[in-house]
Write a structure and sequence with these properties.
single chain, 100 residues, mainly alpha, two-stranded antiparallel sheet, 2 strands, 4% strand
Length: 100
């Protein structure tokens, strides 16, 4: 007796148990924005730690605002753009598959 593959049941896959191929447009938008925020905060945190270490080691005074402007914001925007593109293609594929 064989069991069906969970990938065959959901070809878009799961992300932390969330079936990505079955979400509506608002849930897709919300997930993409959440991914952008997570990337922004994670990269900003790493940049602040790196600036802290650089200031301590080199006895300089690098402005911490650079971590937001030069590192966190571009990474957050790029991750959000990629997530929006990916989630919108999944949503469009689901809509076109349901129509035809």
């Amino acid at each position: 007796m064989t069991q069906p593959s969970p990938i065959a049941a959901n070809p878009a896959g799961n992300l932390f148990g969330i079936p990505l191929g079955k979400m509506g447009w608002f849930a897709s938008l919300l997930m993409a924005v959440a991914a952008g925020f997570m990337a922004f905060f994670a990269s900003t945190f790493c940049a602040i730690i790196c600036i802290l270490l650089a200031n301590t080691a080199a006895h300089k005074s690098i402005d911490y605002a650079l971590s937001y402007r030069r590192i966190g914001f571009p990474i957050g925007l790029s991750v959000m753009a990629v997530a929006l593109a990916y989630m919108s293609t999944l949503w469009i594929k689901r809509i076109t598959r349901r129509v035809s």
